[in-house]
Amino acid sequence: MLVFSDAEERYPHISYDENTLTIEGRSFMDDAVGFYRNVIARIKNEIPTEKLLVVFNLEYFNTSSSKCILEIFRYLLERHEAGDAISVEWYYCERFIDMHEAGEDYKDLAEGLPFEIIEIQG
Predict the structure, then answer these.
(1) Where are the beta strands (DSSP E) in 2-122?
(2) Residue pLDDT, tens place only, 50-92
(3) Beta carbons within 8 Å of 5's beta carbon, 6+ residues apart
């Protein structure tokens, strides 16, 4: 298992194991660009994308994180269009409808990428 970031109050837990990249928790650090620059570089350099499931299970993220997450989706879409079997699962808690809406927005922006939005109880 590769751990890119351990969950902290303002940082998400990001890990890769068995063809699954997982990004979960909260993301509202002061320097989102610096944090995600490193994460995106590691995704590009350390994770095979020939067959990859990307799981997002975020409780909250700020505007800066949102822009960085969009960069992840751009890379995933690029790899998918190059022929890699990439799919996304976006989980949201029924209590946080804004996270459902965010998932819908990312799904629209990454049109063509297999993308499932899944409600969880909580």
Answers:
(1) 2-5, 13-17, 20-27, 51-61, 85-93, 115-120
(2) 999 999 999 999 999 999 999 999 999 999 999 999 999 999 9
(3) 11, 12, 13, 14, 35, 39
Alpha-carbon span 59 to 92, nearest angstrom: 7
In this predicted structure, the answer to whether residue 93 has a pLDDT above a threshold of 90 is yes
Q: Which pTM value belongs to this model?
A: 0.94
Decide: helix, strand or coil at residue 36. Answer: helix
Question: Is the separation of the CB atoms in 28 and 10 below 8 Å?
Answer: yes
Cβ density class 61-85: b for 16+ within 10 Å, e for less = beebbeebbeebbeebbebbeeeee
Q: Is the pLDDT of residue 5 over 90?
A: no
At position 35, the amino acid (one-letter code) is F
Q: How far apart are CA 53 and CA 55, in angstroms?
A: 6
Amino acid at 23: I
Residue 29 DSSP symbol: -
